[in-house]
Amino acid sequence: MKLPKYEMEAEDSLEVFEFVSEGSIGSIPKLIKFSETALKGFYNLAFGDKHLLTGEIDDKVVSNNGDSEKVLATIVSAVYAFTNKNREAWVYATGSTPARTRLYRMGITKYLEEVKLDFEIYGLLSGEWEYFEKDLDYTAFLVRRNK
Amino acid sequence: MKTIQELNESKIPIVRINNGLKKYKTMPIFQEKIDKANEMLRTIGLPKPVKNKAARNI
């Protein structure tokens, strides 16, 4: 996706990324983490704001920094980097709140055709996974690089 | 060697390595979400063969 995105730093396993959101409120450091779950090769994707003084991570805060599209594009970019190194990995994501889950759904929907060139994309609906389709109220998302 | 334009248009980002971030690998952040992901895996699991809108409408 040729969208504006932030420059990122990561440790060498590409499981933890950091970037700085620059918007109307100011500079907000953000952390993205791919955490392996109980199932080998299945990772949870989460991100949140890093508190400048304590370094604590908050994934529920609503920054309202006016750059949500650029932040989402940066997260997608991190997914590309992570899955480029871990080609077989499943990446699972859900929002911390229903509003954030909707934001993810809108982001995927907007670039669906392009993202499908590189990923299998699933949505969780009524307790079942199905191929992601537009306009459905999924509660979680799952992607894996196309074979 | 790739040109600057090719690099800028690549879907794979250029990432600066900062191993100071390694401390977050073992830090129990986002644990609530990981627990929920594990619960989803336990109760639902991975996607099964194709299920889509057309299939739902049958």
Q: What would you say about this model in short?
A:
The complex is a heterodimer of chains A (147) and B (58). With 147 residues, chain A is an alpha+beta fold. Chain A has helices spanning 68-85, 98-110, 112-115, and strands spanning 8-10, 16-22, 27-36, 42-50, 57-58, 90-93, 119-125, 128-131, 140-145.
Can you describe this structure?
The complex is a heterodimer of chains A (147) and B (58). Chain A is an alpha+beta fold. Chain A is built from three helices and nine strands. In chain A, strands 1, 2, 3, 4, 5, 6, 7, 8 and 9 form a nine-stranded mixed sheet that branches. In chain A, a hairpin with a 5-residue loop joins strand 1 and strand 2. The radius of gyration of chain A is 15 Å and the shape is globular. The model of chain A has no long low-confidence stretch (mean pLDDT 91). Chain B is mainly alpha-helical. The longest helix of chain B is centred in the middle third of the chain and has 13 residues, at 31-43. Chains A and B meet through strand 1, strand 2, strand 3, strand 4 and helix 1 of A and strand 1, helix 3 and helix 4 of B. Strand 1 (8-10) of chain A pairs parallel with strand 1 of chain B, so a sheet runs across the interface.
